[in-house]
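Morning, I've got a small favour to ask if you have a moment. It would help a lot if you went through both lines with me. Thanks so much in advance, here it is.

***
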Amino acid sequence: MKRVTFADMALGGWLLASPFIFGYSLSRPVTVAEVLVPGLFLVLTSAWMLASHVAPLRTSWLQAVDGLWLVIGSFVLLFSRLPGGSLNNLIVGLLVLTLTVIADGALLKQTT
């Protein structure tokens, strides 16, 4: 389970760096917020899940919501004429959702 949480944290770090890597950080501040806010949320929720002793099954829905936000936000970025940023958000959002499903499935198997 910790590997999945570290993977989510790495994806959040990638989201925090991606506007600067793709070079649209200064030209579109609202679009940057669409990437930085979910990235920061993903890093913070992952750190919280690693630091606390709360049941991961109870907190993983937060990251699933973040993944959905990224998938929906990818269409916002597409309409903002940022196809690279849109594809990045879509891929990261789908990866976050996939990791959440994998982690929840493993946790459910352990509890039964």
User: Anything to note?
Assistant: Residues 18 and 85 are 8 Å apart (CA to CA).
